Amino acid sequence: MSKQYIVEKAKGGFPLLLMILMSSVTFVGILSELMPSGVLPLIMDDLNISEVQTGNMVGYYAIASAIFAIPLISLTMHFNRKYLLLILLGGFAISNIISGLVQDYTIVIILRILGGICAGVMWPMIAAYGMRLVDEKHHGKAIAVIMAGTTLGISIGMPIMTAIGNDYGWRTEFIGLGVFIIAIAIVSFIALPSIPGEKLTKSSSPFALLKIPAVLIVLLLTLLGVVAHYGVYVYITSLVDEIQLAGGVESALMFFGAGSLISVLLAIKYTDKHLRLLTIAMFALIIISMFIFLTFGGTTGIGHFAFFLWGVSFGPLVTLLQAAVSRQVETAKDVATSVQSSVFNFSIMIASSVAGLLLGIYSPMSLVYLAIVLSVPGIIISVFAKKSLS
Predict the structure, then answer these.
(1) Does residue 390 form part of some domain?
(2) pLDDT of 194-242, one tens digit each?
(3) Which residue ranges traverse the bilayer (predicted)?
């Protein structure tokens, strides 16, 4: 462990540059997962596969993340945090670079599953790693900065990578991301402090955590919040077409992204002191934005404002829920966040499935109603969950 890190932590400082470096890891992590969705037609034509098979490149990745998170976090608890992160970055790089080079669909899927396994370990461990680099009073801020990479990845990274894919080919996009990940790994090797792993005990096992009522409440809020948000977000194009929003999906994503970025900055500043208030506001804003969609639809200006408010609600989703679950344990925060991360990923799959079924029967506005129905109990639970969100 570096002497500079020890001195800085002792002084109660916040190592912002290190947190930004860790944020770059979550940035490439979310891009690795979602990147195929922006260039689906190109991949379909190149590999001569169906739309469903192409969609599986994202689906299998998410399933692998959800399934392997808890067991692998438990198995790697004793690993040095820095070197574990470097191994995971290596896995991301291999998954993306080789996917961009091979012609066989089966090999691509295997590589996507490898990337998903790495993501399943990375998401919970990097938040816990970051918390160990700062004083307890800065834990929420650390998570907020680190997880800001996901919001930046969705709002800024995805449009850029999609443009690269469309202009230069999806293989160039994948290989380019892999090279960028290698660069991040090199900087991480030089800059990040070495932190020893922890011993997994019966009291810190996933099964022990599931016996804590406050943890179960956070997991329930995760389920409600993620399904509410992603049930609409996965089919945002359908919603935009339904309300005939001026400027189309590009303008919707621009306003959504702007709101997300603002809320991430608010989360960085206020999560440590006002976690419960921010969680209540998150559920309240999604309800308000969905009601605006229902009542004003694509009215120019008002519809765009609704996407902005929805983005404000969406931005701190990961940060607030991971901060909440990590507060329920003193040690093995990796395990706690891995449980929450698995529920998060399973919730995304549930959201996609349920929303797809609704969309097949009803109009896209049914997804808006779904978000409201799930967010109402979310806000009620958040109001009364003083212990879980304290």
Answers:
(1) no
(2) 998 877 666 667 777 888 888 899 999 999 999 999 888 878 878 888 9
(3) 12-32, 58-76, 83-103, 109-130, 142-162, 174-195, 207-232, 252-270, 277-296, 302-321, 342-361, 367-385
